Amino acid sequence: MQHDAAHKSQALPRFSVGLTGGIGSGKTTVANMFSRLGAAVIDTDAIAHQLSAAGGIAIAPIIAEFGDSFIDASGAMDRSRMRALVFSDANARKRLEAILHPLIRSETEGAAEQARGPYLIFVVPLLIESGDWKHRVNRVLAVDCDEQIQIQRVMQRNAMSESQVRAIMATQASRQQRLQAADDVILNDGDQAALAPQITQLHTRYLSFADLL
Ligand code: ADP
């Protein structure tokens, strides 16, 4: 019992930041820089991915709901098959989300409890779009980037065409919507050297907010 109480006291709410931005804006780059300064970074996309990878805890409920045919030979969810289904069938999308969302939430909370660091940064690509996240973090930090640069980066990183990148961007919040929802903004139009002072400044601010909590 005593051990439990001690464990719970460590899990008191900590100052947390939701880091978001469009595809290729530089979320991962920025998160890595905060991590090097000592912030605890939790990548919700990586958590979501692990759930439906081979051996992931979402695999059994996915089989129960959709059958074996949505699992590939490695035992992971067949992503392209599932994508095709949920793209054409809104009800199937809801059924998949009903499995994944609560699991993402509990796994994220588990990771947050275990994370060591003066404050938490949750990387949430669709934070603005999802609604729920805005209320779970103390501050929203948006990585902002000129759209042309964003497109160039993703074309290079993922070997995609401009129209493929634009199609993904069309499903995400606009630059303007993100800026409106953000408490803090990092402009990532330049190189890493241009990022460093912005990150150091925000880190200092977040440390002082964390102290006040
Ligand atoms: P996101 O996680 O938002 O999709 P990434 O951090 O992966 O974006 O950045 C997209 C691509 O652009 C990556 O290949 C990354 O290395 C590159 N990139 C991002 N920011 C910079 C920067 N300031 N200078 C140089 N390359 C960058």
Write the layout of secondary structure elements.
Layout: H1 2-10, E1 16-20, H2 27-37, E2 40-43, H3 44-51, H4 59-66, H5 79-88, H6 90-114, E3 120-123, H7 127-130, E4 139-144, H8 147-158, H9 162-170, H10 175-181, E5 184-187, H11 192-212
Parallel strand pairs: 1-3, 1-4, 2-3, 4-5
How would you describe the oligomerization state of the chains in this entry? single chain
Major pleated sheet: 5 strands, parallel
Hetero ligands:
adenosine-5'-diphosphate
The count of helical stretches stands at: 11
Q: How do the strands line up in the largest sheet?
A: 2-3-1-4-5
The proportion of residues in beta strands is 5-15%
Measured as a percent range, the helix fraction is 55-70%
Mean pLDDT value: 92
Q: Name the structural class.
A: alpha/beta
In N-to-C order, the SSE pattern is HEHEHHHHEHEHHHEH
